[in-house]
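Long-time lurker, first post. I've been practising inverse folding by hand and with some scripts of my own, and I keep getting stuck on stretches where the structure tokens seem ambiguous. Below is the full token string for one chain I'm working on. Before anyone asks, I'm not after the true native sequence, just a reasonable design that respects the backbone. If someone could post their per-position residues I'd love to compare against what I wrote down in my notebook.
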């Protein structure tokens, strides 16, 4: 597999996946969030976190606060941070009312908590996060590049500018979050991004990088043909076989 400058973090909430992925040297860290945990059927957040930490052998992992009120966010952040020295606490760039979390980010980072600022999509948000985290503990800023692309905007210039803006603070690393395809790994790498988060599905597709398009085309034709046969479709009197 090609060696990237960008670090690959596994994104998910399946303990079985974490166990398997922890054995892959290419996976340098882990992230999760409440949506992924809900989909995975996680019932006890703290228990899930403890089990995950036992599996990942000291690599960095991000767990997110659950609150919308900043006081409660702070209480939860301090509890989450106590779970381990490799834990980063995910704090959203704003609450659901759009109120910025910069004051909380500044206070937590200055107190030594490792922060992952999440759901960042604009350069104004990047600038406020960098300012809040400056001089504090090691931290991440997660640019939701995939969601930016969902709106028809090219996320590459935004990520590249974010990396440039954060360069003055060596404790801050920029994450390409919510990728949609393997190509995003190369884009993140070329943009100088420090980290990209990949779901298990995307991690499994990394081996397709550089695959022969002729062979891929033939395999696709084979897939369509095999599915037509299995379906038992007919056209007139002729059955697909």
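-- Answer (accepted) --
I ran through it position by position. Result:
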């Amino acid at each position: 597999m090609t060696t990237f400058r960008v670090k690959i973090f596994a994104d998910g909430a399946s303990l079985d996946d974490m166990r398997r992925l922890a054995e892959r040297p290419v996976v340098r860290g882990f992230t999760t969030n409440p949506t992924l945990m809900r989909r995975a059927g996680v019932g006890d957040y703290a228990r899930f976190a403890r089990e995950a930490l036992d599996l990942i052998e000291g690599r960095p992992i991000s767990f997110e606060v659950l609150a919308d009120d900043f006081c409660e966010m702070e209480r939860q952040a301090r509890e989450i941070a106590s779970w381990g020295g490799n834990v980063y606490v995910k704090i959203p760039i704003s609450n659901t009312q759009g109120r910025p979390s910069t004051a909380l980010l500044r206070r937590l980072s200055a107190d030594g908590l490792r922060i992952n600022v999440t759901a960042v999509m604009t350069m104004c948000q990047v600038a406020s996060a960098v300012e809040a985290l400056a001089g504090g503990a090691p931290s991440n800023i997660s640019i939701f590049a995939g969601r930016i692309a969902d709106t028809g905007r090219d996320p590459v210039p935004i990520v590249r500018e974010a990396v440039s803006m954060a360069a003055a603070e060596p404790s801050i690393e920029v994450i390409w979050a919510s990728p949609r395809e393997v190509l995003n790994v190369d884009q993140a790498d070329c943009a100088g991004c420090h980290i990209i988060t990949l779901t298990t599905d995307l991690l499994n597709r990394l081996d397709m990088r550089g695959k022969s398009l002729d062979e891929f085309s033939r395999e696709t034709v084979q897939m369509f043909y095999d599915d037509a046969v299995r379906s038992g479709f007919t056209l007139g009197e002729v059955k697909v076989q």
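A couple of notes from the structure itself: The CA atoms of residues 126 and 170 lie 15 Å apart. The chain has two domains: 7-209, 211-241. Happy to go over any region you disagree with.
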